[in-house]
Every structure is written in structure tokens, then in C-alpha cells.
From TrEMBL:
Annotated pathway: Nucleoside biosynthesis; alpha-ribazole biosynthesis; alpha-ribazole from 5,6-dimethylbenzimidazole: step 1/2
EC number: 2.4.2.21
Active site residues of this protein: E310 (proton acceptor)
Organism per entry: Shewanella jiangmenensis
Catalysed reaction equations from the record: 5,6-dimethylbenzimidazole + nicotinate beta-D-ribonucleotide = alpha-ribazole 5'-phosphate + nicotinate + H(+)
Protein name: Nicotinate-nucleotide--dimethylbenzimidazole phosphoribosyltransferase
Enzyme class: transferase
Superkingdom of the source species: Bacteria
A single MF term (Gene Ontology): nicotinate-nucleotide-dimethylbenzimidazole phosphoribosyltransferase activity
Keyword terms: Cobalamin biosynthesis, Glycosyltransferase, Transferase
Length: 344
């Protein structure tokens, strides 16, 4: 379905040499140096960020009715309206930092008012309760992947060469935990965290319901698409499609926290080459996120103790992306500046 190529690394030695010969000790810019190398592979020898686009996918989850969150399912639609009105954290961060923001209804319970600036990519009115039945059909998975791909292509056609991913959906940490447990063969209790900040009793119930879902669907969890169908979320499927769509075009994707990383995990399981296009923005306060990052063998750019979602961490990492591109393009070499090389 997707045509994803591994990045060309034949010029890595030359790229690294250009980085090493900047007016600084070798390695002195830390993670920015490896980030610059990754970006040059995708954006070319004079890398520049153009029209960065933040895509926030929103959907509801049937498991939310079982009381796995401090918030009722209605909050998803209320927050989507808040996004559309410009009043959420992600709106503020996008305005301050220069992101183009799109809010996408992937399948919330109540469709947004038509007057709101929300893109309709609905797969249904919320997923099925995963502890009782499948979240969605394989047909909905395929459609969701295509929806995500289409949104990335739409922004790329307008000049975007960097995609950020965010989400909103009451109950989606339960779905992400189930995906993680299924794909990494980890016990549910190690994948389920406090999400929005539930108490101990709710956490225990959440763990029990995710375990129940995994047992119920055990015979069907053979690959990433099946896992998404059984225990996924409409917004997670569409984020997966957006990741794959960006990799297919050859542009980088800023991955936010726990939920977005669950989508990234699905994408990498489907097409391993996808990992090369992913930039992990921050380490979520959700306890299992670190385990996901460790499995993928990646180190995020930021660790601010955040667990908001919405793409907030991805949005905040944009200045680091621009800085990595900028120093690679504009920082003088020792020869350019007439500075004696620093040998470490």
C-alpha cells in the first residue's frame, strides 16, 4: 500500500565531516549534530524547514465508558471545539512557534459543528469497547491509513516539508497501552499508566480492562494492522497513516508522546524503513513511554515532564529542528573563519 524507501546514507561521511569542521569542538553540539545529519538526509544539503504542519487527530474510544479516565467521553468533542476556537495549549504553541495547525475529526462521538474549522475524516462515532469487541474493522484500518496519508499529501502540496503529530481522545492511553503490550509482548500492567491522572483504583481497573482486551483478541493479534483493528483508536490509525505517508514522500515527522509513539510503533512494524524518517520530540510523563522509546532505540529531544498530548511536545521541539538546520547551513568552518582547528 505504501512505497517507502530507506534513506540514502552514501553521503553520511561527507555530511559528518562538514559538521565536524564547524567552528566548535567535535561533538560539542550534542544531539543537534545527529539531528542535523538526519535532517540533511531528508531535506538536502542546505536544509530549511518550510511551512511546518501540525496535524491533531481526535477520536473517541468505547473503553472510556468503563471509567478509565478522570474525564468523561464528552470532553473529546469539547476539546476539539476549544482547538477550533484557538484556546488550547497546542494553539498557543503553534502560534508562538510558527506551525500551521489542522484539527482532524477521526471519529469523535458527536460530529463538530459545521461552522468549526475541523477536517472531516470520520471513521465512525468512536471505536468499539476493546475489552468487549474489536475497536474497528480491517476496512476501517485501511481507510484510516489512507486518511492520514491524504492529510500529509495535502500539506506537502502546499509546501510543507515537516509534519508534526498530535491527538485528542478520552481513553486513548488505554488503547495505546494495549497496542504496546500486543506488539512488544509486554504484560498489560507494565504498559498501563495513569493517563490524565487517575487514582489507584481507576488505574487498577484500567489495567484489568486492557488485560481483558488482550486476552479477548489474543488469536487475532498477528500483525500491526490486526492489532489496530482489535485494540486501536481511529486517531492512532490515522496518525500511523500520516507517518507512513510522510515517509513515502521523504519528509520528517515529529512524533509527540505516548499515543503518537504507539502509532509510530505500528508504522515501523509495518514498514521498518519508516523509523529513519521519525524524530521523537519528547519523553512523556506517561511511565511506559520510555519503554517504547527504548524498544525503538531512540532518544527524544526533550524531557519536560509533560503528558498533555495534543502534539504539545512535538510543537515545542520545532526550534531545535530549525537550529540544527541553521547551524549546518550557516555556521562557519575553521577554514572559513580563519580559526585554528580544535582537536579533541
Amino acid at each position: 500500500m505504501f512505497q517507502i524507501k530507506a534513506l540514502d546514507k552514501s553521503c553520511d561521511q561527507n555530511i559528518q565531516r562538514r559538521i565536524d569542521l564547524k567552528t566548535k569542538p567535535v561533538g560539542a553540539l550534542g544531539k543537534l549534530e545527529s539531528l542535523a545529519l538526519q535532517l540533511v538526509r531528508m531535506l538536502g544539503d542546505e536544509p530549511t524547514v518550510a511551512r511546518p504542519a501540525m496535524l491533531v487527530f481526535a477520536a473517541d474510544h468505547g473503553i472510556a465508558d468503563a471509567g478509565v479516565s478522570i474525564a468523561p467521553p464528552e470532553v473529546t468533542a469539547q476539546m476539539v471545539a476549544n482547538f477550533a476556537a484557538g484556546g488550547a495549549a497546542i494553539n498557543v504553541f503553534c502560534r508562538e512557534l510558527g506551525w500551521t495547525l489542522e484539527i482532524i475529526d477521526a471519529g469523535i462521538l458527536t460530529p463538530p459543528d459545521p461552522s468549526l474549522n475541523v477536517t472531516n475524516c470520520r471513521l465512525g462515532a468512536g471505536t468499539g469497547p476493546i475489552h468487549k469487541r474489536a475497536a474497528m474493522t480491517l476496512g476501517q484500518v485501511e481507510q484510516g491509513l489512507e486518511f492520514g496519508r491524504a492529510r500529509v499529501r495535502a500539506h506537502h502540496s502546499l509546501g510543507s516539508n515537516l509534519i508534526g503529530l498530535g491527538e485528542m481522545g478520552i481513553g486513548n492511553t488505554s488503547s495505546a497501552a494495549a497496542i504496546m503490550a500486543a506488539l512488544l509482548d509486554i504484560e498489560a500492567k507494565d504498559c498501563v499508566g495513569r493517563g490524565t491522572g487517575v487514582d489507584a483504583a481507576t488505574l487498577k481497573r484500567k489495567q484489568m480492562l486492557v488485560e481483558q482486551a488482550l486476552v479477548l483478541h489474543m488469536s487475532e493479534l498477528g500483525d500491526a494492522k490486526s492489532v489496530l483493528a482489535c485494540v486501536g483508536g481511529f486517531e492512532i490509525v490515522q496518525m500511523t497513516g500520516a507517518i507512513l505517508g510522510a515517509a513515502e514522500i521523504g519528509i520528517p515527522v515529529m512524533v509527540d508522546g505516548f499515543i503518537a509513539t504507539a502509532a509510530a510503533l505500528c508504522a515501523v512494524k509495518m514498514y521498518p524503513e519508516t523509523k529513519e524518517y521519525l524524530i521523537f520530540a519528547h519523553r512523556s510523563g506517561e511511565r511506559a513511554h520510555g519503554m517504547m522509546l527504548e524498544h525503538l532505540g531512540v532518544e527524544p529531544l526533550l524531557d519536560l515532564g509533560m503528558r498533555l498530548g495534543e502534539g504539545s511536545g512535538a510543537a515545542l521541539a520545532l526550534p531545535l529542528i530549525k537550529a540544527a538546520c541553521g547551524f549546518y547551513r550557516e555556521m562557519a568552518s575553521f577554514d572559513d573563519a580563519g580559526v585554528e582547528p580544535v582537536v579533541s
